[in-house]
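Re: the 306-residue chain
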Amino acid sequence: MSALVQVTELYRYYAQHCVIENLNFSLKKGQILGFLGVNGAGKTTTLQMLSGNLAPTAGNIKIKGVDLLKQPLQAKLALGYLPETPPLYKDLTVDEFLSYCAKLHHVSNTLQQKSINNSKERCGLTQVGKRLITNLSKGYQQRVGIAQAILHNPDVIILDEPTVGLDPIQIKDIRNLIKELGQEHGIIVSSHILSEVQEFCTHVQIIHQGKLILKETIAELNNKITYLCLKLTTRTAIDSAKLKTIKGITEIESLANNQYLIHHHKSENPTEALTELIIINGWGLEEISPLKRSLEDVFLTLTAQT
């Protein structure tokens, strides 16, 4: 399957300051790419370049094989973009706004109403078409923003912080919508909610100081971060040297109040041998449980190292 988006050696400078450095990645149909980074890492700058709103200093962006810099109008026909702040005309009704956007997206007159109805249905806006956008809740305004992004049925949808400022129910609704859209499109989602990305994205990238420091499928990432270590609590202090003789244990990290993190090889589970040794030595086992690393743990570790 050919890539819907192909980014090659992308750079962006502001004067002498390099904001994006040698960025390379691709996106295919059916993929939902979670794009993560701390504030100032370069996420929004990258999305602005991908959407054609900002020119790169160097590098190449192709949308469905079309060079975004050389043939911007043709390339943008395959793009739908929702900035962090949806560009809504709030004095218009939902139907009026979407009709205006259909014209901007060059949707033919014969297909306009069908396209509007389809985008409203997919975004749960069918019942609010006649209402002024200014009178809608933030969650519904976000839906209108997504509706304009998918109005022309683009192959690529770019969403910058689509759930920011929403309540938990609205977040769930938008998340389900993105999952549904991801079945037929290629989607790039910028988000600060790491657990959210881990839940509904198929791929994840972390950008830090303008550089891509992680590029994985969610399946690969979950496989790597399943169980990092065991959390151990005893009544009395343990002898770390004795514990290290157990097969598979790589490191013992001492915490406060006789608590320890027992790091071990992924292929080995030392729980049984560990329990037996603690009982034999009378250290008093109070708790032993596996700890699972989250995407947030990986994110914090990687950004701290860079």
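The domain at 226-305 is CATH 3.30.70 (Alpha-Beta Plaits).
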